[in-house]
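Supplementary Methods, section 5.1.

A reviewer requested that the exact input to the structure prediction be made available. We therefore reproduce it here, unchanged from the version used in the analyses.
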Amino acid sequence: MLPVLVTLAVLLIAFMVFTAIWTNVLWYRSVGFSSVYTTELWAKTVLFVGAGALMALVVGANLVIAYKLRPAYRPLSIEQRGLERYRTLIDPRRKLIMIGSLGLLALLTGSSVAGQWRVWLAFLNRTPFGVNDPQFGKDVSFYVFTYPFLRLVLGVVFATVILSILAAVMVHYVYGGLRVQGPGDKASPPARAHLSVLVGLFVLLKAFAYWFDRYGLVHSERGVVTGAAYTDVNALLPAKTILAVIALICAAMFFGNIVRRGMMLPGVGFTLLVLSAILVGGVYPLLIQQFQVKPDELAKEQQFIKRNIDFTRRAYGVEGVKAEPYGTKPEIDKTKLRQEAGKLSGVRLLDPNVVGPAFQQLQQIRQFYKFPDALDVDRYQIDGKTEDSVVAVRELSGAPAGQAGWVKDRLLYTHGYGLVRAAGDRVESNGTPAFVQKDMPATGKPELSRPEIYFGERSSSYSIVGGRGQQELNYPDPSVQGGQRNTTYAGSGGVKVDSFFNRLLFAAKFQDKNILLSGAINPDAKILYNRTPREMVKRAAPWLTLDGNPYPTVVNGRVLWVVDGYTTSNGYPYAQQTSLGNATRDTITETRSAVAQQANDHINYMRNSVKATVDAYDGSVNLYLWDEQDPVAKTWSKVFKGTVKPKAQIPPQLAEHLRYPEDLFKVQRMILAKYHVTDAAPFYSAEGFWEVAPDPTSKGKTQPPYYLSLQMPGESTPKFSLTSVFTPKDRPNLAAFLAVDSTAGEGYGRLRLLEMPTKDQADLQQPRGPAQVQQDFESNDAIKAQLFSLRNTGTETRLGNLLTLPFGGGLLYVEPVYAQSSEANQAPYPILRYVLAKWDDKVAYGRNLQEALTPLFEGAPTGTKPPDKGGQPTTGGGALTPELQRAINDLQAAIDEFKAAQAKNDYTAMGAAWKKIEQARQALSSARDAAAKQGTAPAPQPTGAPTPGPSGSPGPTPPAG
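The structure derived from this sequence is encoded token-by-token as follows.
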């Protein structure tokens, strides 16, 4: 019975392994990347078999040698009598035990080494960088490709020798070659010779390791910065050389013990090795560090700090970035400022991280569709004009509530529908997004010939589509019979499930028997799986690190997902390492599920080498080599030949929508926070270091970068850019502004760093940082009154992205403010209520950008108290009339009175307070009308005050009696 069960278990495991491999092969074939999977599988197999066989053969050979060298006679002792029981137990099963042990050891070793297949393939296809390190003169490719592979080989060989020593000791001890008790020698001559050879091999490997470790000093963390420091070069480097020579001598002593009797030579060699490692490798460098470097650290480390600065900036692609002084001469002529403000256009007021619920409420159409919680920013050229847009795909969230079933989930509700696009710089008159591409069927420009979304970020694990006669829901349409338009998938993607064998495989893969048993699957049907854009690109290019935020765009009538791919390394010499997860973490990655967080991998080299696309209809994947100078990308293009297309093959319509990727920009801004300082002495003092500005609307989180069209100083036209700001270390004011050109073309990728006046420039004003600007907005009397009235009368406010714009030689700050109902029985979504703006020391607000900007460049500052003489200010979006302010205050006082009475369950007082609320509302309405006649921006009509209960009194119904 047991053999039958074991056989069945083996067959089941074999079937599951075959299922996993073959369904992967079918998927890779369906997207045209089968060579990627076979190359990866071949590399893993070679490493698995090679490393496992090496370990098993070497350890097995030493087990056999140790057994054959067992002494024929073992002196009687208590120890040997105890071991005899083990020998009696082991001997009849010796071969079986050895085969099982070696098989397990080979399996573990092979599995571990097979996971390093990228290291091996990169080494075989390595490409020179054309840059030599300043210490050893080796090309950077040695440290990126060769060094990791040689460390891998050395590690496997070390492990093999150590395990061989342990195995030999164990066998020699069990069979009497080694003894702990009893008179005479503790080791037989054959056992001593065998172990001397093995230990000699270990020490010889240690000599190679010491010599090889010299090159690892370029990644040392001993000094002020990463890289070989003064102590490493002047103490540890010669120490490693000396230790390598000593280890060679010690290895010779161990080998010499083969022909000698006794343990004197091995003992001398071992003692020499340990003492030299402690004194030469540990104490000597420590003394140099403490007594030579520490007292004069800057002088000693200066040249090594400079190496780190140069190599770090080159490794992260910011070597050409130089800080440009800015803000020293802001424009003061209000006429020129008004003219410039009149030309200011394209400022994105629609925050993609706030307006998701508005898309959901206004464009969901049916409850089984869903938009992501963080939308994307793109730009489109319509009728010769380029406009920034907020875009999102309407994806399927599943069958309608209460109607779920296998056929509906897998065969009927199979895909989403359409891309929704809203103008980024304007809204409708009621504050909702101005949709320019919307609805079902899809309308607007650019036109969609294939609006179906079969491959998306919310695509389910699998769907079965196509086939003769199969009808899938395309989109709801009340105008047709049945209330829906149907379709049948006709794309090239997917794997056919028209055979019993394939259906059996996929039933096992997804652990779903319905795939095998269902009669609803039509002939020629296909199964779609592994269909989220990031997963598909990761499988097609396993050597890439992918951006956390793929975005959809329309190209030639089809929706394409664009995924930015990075090549990374942690082997670049002298470059500072950074955690990819920490560098890319901000408010959006921590609060929005649509943006994936990066792993906490430590890297010191990064390039955006590949632009990948995934067709949302047929799932076709295309990889384009974007950075044609990147040696890492060239290396992997040689590994996976033909999978990456040259940059010249990027369709022009697609190039219009490519943008500078967010995660690379986040890493670069973190590097530039320190490495904008390019001289060693000020870098050492760290006085000029910055930090990425905190998000003023989200405590404890980093402000994300923002896409918008921006006209930088010295440029004649706005360009689509990605921007961020810095503050000085532990200070709130603004230190610098960083922008990168995100428009594909000649200037793409150009980083510009505008450095603001510092505290040392006493005659110049330091710009306010984001947190300070936010405080200025909310402490301004006029703005505070407007926000106060919204926040305390049943309406919540949501602050949008605080944009910082170079303008008129200074900085203009713009922030949209959204409002949404806080009523529990409503489906709230944000609408744009105000635009806040700040220039110089003035702040203002308005219903749109121009209304907010107008008072900034007039004579009097906005938001000030009314003058003592001469009437009332009428400054556009700024000051309130006294009547308006008084009405708002009275309304708030009445609301507070109502809340206090409600807390005490005093229904009489609640009724009195309710009457005061109604009176205050009427007074506010009258004041608004009067202000409108004077031309002053009216206060918003408060909404959501306490509503009457069933008894006619406000609040909850009083208890009976």
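The longest strand covers residues 558-569. These observations are discussed further in the main text.
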